[in-house]
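_Per-residue structure_
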Amino acid sequence: MLPPKHRLKSKDAIKNVLRKGRVATRGSFLQVKLIASNRKVSRFAFIAGARTAKKAVVRNTIKRRLRAVTTRQLNNLKKGFDCVVLAGPEVKDKSFDEIEVELTSLFKQSGLL
């Protein structure tokens, strides 16, 4: 589980990253947007919208998998960033291992790892 201090919770903070943040990297089914912050930890939010999957159960499963991958990488990630991970429709057909490889690769490309 992603520790509370690493969660990007408020709608305003998430909107700020989506509007002002740079698209750090795009993969085949994931996209990472981030913005520098003055915090001592990096915070993350995960978005899987209705276009990603129609059923809420599937969207929640996708977000749980993304959170699990991020939690595994927390010790290695740079501090001081707010990051939003956007899931595309193709992610619902991917296994946990494929998601882990893709997200880890995106973190490396964006400079977070």
Summary: The chain has one domain: 4-110.
